[in-house]
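Title: Comparing notes on inverse folding

I've been comparing how different people in this forum approach sequence design from structure. To keep things fair, I'm posting one structure and asking everyone to reply with a full sequence. Here's the target:
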């Protein structure tokens, strides 16, 4: 539940702008975030997978409609970047909790 709240807060904060952002950019951001999350589950590079997904979609749009929108590609990649750092923050907090539970006597003379 905490992950979902953190993810929602990051998406809302990163998309908040005084300029009008089209609904399509939010969809691209969500697609990039989703592809980065799936890539993380498969131990693949998160940002690269978001970029690849965005590039594939824009190439498809160019072939079908004759328009390659770089802003859509940026929005997709930005979704991947944000998720990468959210995942990194969550993993760091888990590592700190795990390390606090290790008794000092088990660390041995190396860590003293």
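Reply #1:
Here's my take.
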């Amino acid at each position: 539940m905490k992950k979902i709240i953190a993810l929602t807060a990051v998406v809302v904060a990163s998309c908040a702008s005084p300029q009008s952002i089209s609904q399509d950019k939010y969809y691209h951001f969500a697609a990039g975030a989703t592809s980065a999350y799936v890539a993380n589950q498969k131990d693949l590079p998160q940002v690269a997978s978001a970029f690849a997904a965005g590039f594939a979609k824009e190439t498809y749009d160019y072939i079908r409609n004759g328009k390659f929108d770089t802003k859509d590609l940026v929005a997709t990649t930005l979704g991947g970047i944000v998720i990468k750092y959210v995942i990194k923050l969550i993993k760091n907090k888990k590592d700190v909790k795990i390390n606090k539970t290790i008794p000092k006597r088990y660390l041995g003379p190396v860590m003293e």
